[in-house]
């Protein structure tokens, strides 16, 4: 998706940019039926950190892709703690596309996401834990390998562990090898675990 303003912007229709551009006016325009008006309002709200709750609310009900992309871009531009907290709440959405777009947005805010990782990896919802591992895949943080090792040592859910193994095959070092070997013993009857671990070990040793 990519949260970058495109140079070949869509044509501005009518007088939508002549409307009130202050905070109350922009928030009111989030309710407009015309998605182009909503999009411009969302973009201009990037200068208002206090607009985060309204942007998150729009994100959870917006169905037009280019408006939703604009919301993510503005939230990343704002880059506040409240923006991250709002984005993290979207990981629980039933909308798979929204979850995946949220992961990409959070990967663009690594310093703000890091304090939440331990809590997310301990979340009761295994899907949230899996999505958190997907965030780690591109987080570019020195603790990523340690977090993944902890997952395969402690997480009781096989799908969470195999997701961590997949990421370790890309970012892991020999430091992860003992935990990978031990994982095969934790799930001895899961042939996919054996295969995933063996593949990761081979990849790491060949790196």
Automatic annotation (TrEMBL):
Matches recorded under SMART domains: EZ_HEAT
Name by which UniProt lists this protein: HEAT repeat domain-containing protein
Pfam families referenced in this protein's UniProt entry, alphabetically: HEAT_2 (PF13646)
Annotated GO MF terms: oxidoreductase activity
InterPro entries: ARM-like, ARM-type_fold, PBS_lyase_HEAT
Source domain of life: Bacteria
SUPFAM superfamilies xref list: ARM repeat (SSF48371)
């Amino acid at each position: 998706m990519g949260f970058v303003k495109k140079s070949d912007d869509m044509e501005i229709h009518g007088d939508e940019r002549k409307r009130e551009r202050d905070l109350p006016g922009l928030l009111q325009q989030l309710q407009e039926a015309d998605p182009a008006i909503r999009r411009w309002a969302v973009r201009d709200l990037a200068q208002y950190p206090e607009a985060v709750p309204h942007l998150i609310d729009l994100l959870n009900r917006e169905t037009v892709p280019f408006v939703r992309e604009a919301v993510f871009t503005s939230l990343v531009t704002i880059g506040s703690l409240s923006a991250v907290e709002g984005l993290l709440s979207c990981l629980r959405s039933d909308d798979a596309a929204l979850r995946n777009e949220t992961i990409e947005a959070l990967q663009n805010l690594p310093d703000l996401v890091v304090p939440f990782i331990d809590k997310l990896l301990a979340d009761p919802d295994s899907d949230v834990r899996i999505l958190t591992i997907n965030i780690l895949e591109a987080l570019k943080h020195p603790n990523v390998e340690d977090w993944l090792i902890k997952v395969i040592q402690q997480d009781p859910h096989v799908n969470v562990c195999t997701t961590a193994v997949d990421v370790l095959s890309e970012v892991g070092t020999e430091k992860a090898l003992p935990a990978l070997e031990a994982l095969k013993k934790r799930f001895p009857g899961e042939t996919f675990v054996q295969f995933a671990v063996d593949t990761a070990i081979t990849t790491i040793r060949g790196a």
